[in-house]
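Input record (one chain):
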Amino acid sequence: MGNGPVGQTLIVMSSREPARRLLRLLLGRLGYSCSVAADGDEALTLLSQSPSAVLVVDARAPTEEELLFLGLLERRHPGAGRLVLHEGQGRLRSEGREEVLTWGPSQMGGPRPAFPSLEELRQAVEQLFALRLLTDLRPGVAKA
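The corresponding structure, as predicted from the sequence alone:
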């Protein structure tokens, strides 16, 4: 299990080996260690071992595996923090909050990069950990 700030766990899920290696390398350069999962079952097992983990899911060219995993994740762990990478953008989601991030400079009509820069990835992961921390620190609300 890899740890990020404040003891948070970072899990990378992609059905493609080159994407898993690249994400692990980039996150390592940013000072993060992470666990990697080749499929949804592995990722769910890792998540069950550390329920407060945050996930980075490569869905730039999603296969059935990524799509099924995202559906199961939403059903079984709806509050799990995640960064879902898409072509040219990423989606941050934690506890019902969602934000879309766009990679690269905004050029009128120009193509966006398929993958975030190292700095964009760092900012996205830090933001995801911050959202997770805020969720963990939020006081519970009593129901009548």
